[in-house]
């Protein structure tokens, strides 16, 4: 670990009044620049009204004939969990019934609680575990709740606040990986143990330890797969790193057995006694090599030593990636990314093998699985593209019949705009895809204010989602929006990700700058009209590009970022990302990290654009100290920088609609000031 002097180390404290005072002063300075702009208040209200538009799609999960939805509005800022029937959902007038009021629960407890999720027991879905987080952070508590009586279960399951992993096993038992205070935790602050907790009389539940991971493990998780109404399988995932793991089968005697899968393989689903496995590395099994990027059907019996062949479902290809997998009662459904657009393929088990068929869904934009009612052939999915509002569809995978359940109202008139896929050439000659959304009659004279968005990490793909608020408040004001699909992401499979993994991270920065140069070279925009935006790993991306190539950009929106790459492993969940970035405890890797670490590469003599950094005091994933220290260092070197740190929302923005609207309005006002005024 590097021990470079750090004069701003004190800003990492989460309980120092002096830090609170410093943050308050920074917020006040930022609000004087952004909130005081005459455009801010009406813009915030317009965005809030849009969020509260009752025509927005209420996404749901279906259990035993009920459609459950989490809803927030001005009367319920923390939200309510409610339900309706499919018939009422499809009707013009919906009849929703509240089963849990989060505002009332938080008020009764006197806590700053937000809903972090509701986990239904699949075979008895009226029983749920309600996960509540403090201020919207990742850590949460879990209490058992009865949806029929709308009350907490007396002497039911209750687990303390922490980064726990808890999953129903059956109506009277749960698999628990404790992440609360006092439990053995990994260096990253995640669970190391797996317990079976069985319901007992008078709330005296029975605990039995099933598994303990090594001290240097990253985390463990456990859950039950249901294979039809009668079949099941209990599984433990023990992660050594972010991409390296072992799977362990829990047998009927509660003994665990490691499965001989390669370390860089993900079990995506289980159906008809077979695991659906995605490979991130080559795997040689019984004399046959399966290539990285493959999706395989692997019989459990085969892994346990019996005869039985592995079947290739999806072969790796240059511009193809497996995004996600879902199972229905009969079929495996694979969401493929084909040249950065989605398409669905089904696989049916017939005559002892899997048979592929295409599904009749749109293939010009992005598809996301929305819901799959258990023990049915129904699959709900959403579809959108940059200029097409999201639609929610209900598909019968067995028959191909489908209905559009709901179409989101258009946020803007898209008729005057186009979205096109383009390609930039990286410094090493690799073609980098990006999308440009612009006015149809754009003049390529370098005058178009342009926002370039990117991520480039953790094998997460950037896809053509509906631009919604940016359509109404950016495109219609003369701006262009660009989405970069750089290496480090998951657009083209594991190789695309691994090309910018570890100490090769600067490859993603080079790709992003290559896209910026292509935009300028095309005549769409010019440096004083070009802004960049990214969050989390994307915050690292845009900050690194700012310090490397400050002359390319006029605006930088850096959200919930990690920026000190020599101390990131010491802060909150940072140690879990060593596989992604490299280990600063290794001298060679530390040198590579320091060479691009935005916090360490700031220079007094450089001329940086005025950046906007955002973070949250309640972010328990990426420490707010990253953004605080970056701003402090910029200001110490004589460079202006804006910081906005919220009290709630955590890393994912899990807060009320008013805060969401305020945050987006500030970003837009900042972009107006930097690129349009």
General description of the model:
The chain has four domains: 167-259, no CATH class; 266-314; 317-410; 426-676, 3-Layer(aba) Sandwich (Rossmann fold), CATH 3.40.50. It starts with 16 loop residues before the first helix and ends with a helix. Helix 8 (506-522) packs across helix 9. The strands form nine sheets. The protein has an eight-stranded mixed sheet with strand order 32-33-35-34-36-37-38-39, sandwiched between helices. Strands 5, 6, 7, 8 and 9 form a five-stranded antiparallel sheet that branches. A four-stranded antiparallel sheet has the order 1-2-3-4. It is an alpha+beta fold and 677 residues long. The mean pLDDT is 96. The longest helix is centred in the C-terminal third of the chain and has 20 residues, at 657-676. It has 14 helices and 39 strands.
Helix content: 10-25%
Percent strand equals 35-45%
Question: Per CATH, what is the topology of the largest domain?
Answer: Rossmann fold
* Intertermini distance: 45 Å
Tell me the name of the CATH homologous superfamily of the largest domain. Answer: Alpha/Beta hydrolase fold, catalytic domain
Q: Which of globular, elongated, flat, extended, rod-shaped describes the shape? A: globular
Q: Give the CATH class of the largest domain.
A: Alpha Beta
> Do you know the CATH architecture of the largest domain?
3-Layer(aba) Sandwich
Spatial strand arrangement across the major sheet: 32-33-35-34-36-37-38-39
Q: Determine the structural class based on helices, strands and strand pairing.
A: alpha+beta
Sheet with the most strands, sense and barrel status: 8 strands, mixed
Domain count, please report it.
Answer: 4
Rg over CA atoms: 25 Å
Strands, total number: 39
List segments where confidence is low: pLDDT < 50 over at least 5 consecutive residues: none
Number of distinct helices: 14
Determine the mean pLDDT: 96
């Amino acid at each position: 670990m590097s021990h470079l002097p750090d004069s701003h180390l004190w800003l990492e404290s989460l309980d120092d009044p002096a830090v609170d005072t410093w943050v308050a002063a920074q917020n006040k300075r930022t609000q004087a620049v952004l909130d005081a702009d005459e455009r801010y208040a009406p813009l915030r209200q317009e965005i809030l009204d849009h969020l509260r538009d009752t025509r927005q799609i209420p996404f749901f999960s279906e259990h035993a004939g009920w459609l459950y939805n989490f809803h927030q509005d001005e009367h319920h800022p923390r939200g309510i969990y409610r339900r309706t029937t499919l018939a009422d959902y499809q009707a013009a007038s919906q009849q929703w019934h509240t089963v849990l009021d989060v505002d009332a629960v938080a008020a009764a407890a006197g806590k700053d609680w937000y809903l972090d999720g509701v986990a239904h027991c699949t075979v008895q879905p009226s029983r749920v575990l309600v996960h509540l987080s403090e201020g919207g952070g990742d850590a949460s508590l879990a209490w058992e709740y009865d949806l029929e009586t709308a009350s907490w279960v007396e002497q039911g399951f209750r687990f303390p606040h922490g980064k726990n992993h808890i999953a129903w096993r059956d109506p009277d038992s749960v698999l628990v990986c404790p992440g609360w205070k006092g439990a053995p935790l990994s260096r990253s602050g995640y669970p190391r143990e797996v317990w079976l907790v069985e319901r007992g009389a008078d709330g005296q539940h029975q605990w039995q330890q099933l598994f303990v991971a090594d001290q240097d493990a990253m985390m463990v998780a456990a859950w039950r797969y249901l294979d039809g109404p009668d079949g099941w399988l209990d599984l433990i995932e023990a992660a050594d790193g972010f991409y390296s793991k072992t799977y362990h089968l829990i047998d009927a005697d509660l003994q665990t057995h490691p499965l001989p899968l390669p370390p860089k393989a993900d079990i995506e689903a289980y159906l008809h006694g077979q695991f659906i496995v995605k490979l991130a590395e080559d795997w040689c099994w019984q004399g046959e090599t399966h290539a990285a990027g493959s999706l395989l059907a692997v019989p459990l019996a085969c892994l346990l030593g019996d005869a039985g062949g592995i079947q290739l479902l999806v072969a790796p290809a240059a511009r193809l990636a497996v995004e996600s997998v879902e199972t229905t009662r009969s079929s495996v459904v694979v969401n493929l990314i084909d040249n950065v657009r989605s398409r669905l393929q089904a696989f049916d088990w017939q005559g002892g093998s899997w048979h592929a068929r295409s599904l009749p869904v749109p293939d010009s934009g992005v598809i996301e699985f929305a819901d799959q009612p258990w023990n049915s052939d129904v699959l709900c999915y959403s579809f959108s593209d940059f200029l097409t509002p999201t639609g929610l569809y209900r598909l019968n995978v067995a028959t191909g019949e489908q209905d559009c359940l709901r179409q989101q109202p258009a946020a803007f008139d898209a008729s005057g705009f186009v979205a096109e896929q383009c390609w930039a050439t990286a410094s090493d000659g690799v073609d980098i895809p990006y999308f440009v959304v612009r006015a149809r009659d754009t003049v390529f004279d370098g005058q178009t204010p342009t926002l370039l968005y990117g991520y480039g990490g953790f094998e997460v793909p950037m896809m053509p989602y509906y631009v919604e608020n940016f359509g109404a408040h950016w495109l219609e004001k003369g701006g262009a929006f660009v989405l970069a699909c750089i290496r480090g992401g998951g657009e083209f499979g594991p190789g695309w990700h691994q090309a910018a993994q570890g100490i090769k991270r600067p490859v993603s920065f080079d790709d992003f700058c290559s896209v910026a140069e292509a935009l300028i070279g095309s005549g769409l925009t010019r440096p004083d009209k070009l802004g960049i935006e990214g969050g989390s790993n994307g915050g690292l991306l845009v900050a690194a590009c700012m310090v490397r190539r400050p002359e390319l950009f006029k605006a930088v929106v850096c959200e919930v970022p990690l920026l000190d790459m020599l101390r990131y492993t010491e802060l909150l969940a940072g140690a879990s990302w060593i596989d992604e970035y490299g280990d600063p405890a290794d001298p060679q890797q530390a040198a590579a990290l320091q060479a691009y670490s935005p916090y360490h590469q700031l220079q007094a003599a450089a001329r940086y654009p005025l950046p906007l950094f955002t973070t949250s005091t309640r972010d328990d994933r990426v420490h707010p100290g990253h953004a605080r220290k970056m701003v402090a260092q910029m200001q110490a070197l004589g460079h202006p920088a804006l910081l906005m740190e919220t009290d709630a929302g955590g890393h994912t923005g899990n807060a009320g609609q008013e805060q969401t609207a305020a945050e987006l309005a500030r970003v837009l006002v900042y972009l107006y000031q930097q690129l349009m005024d």
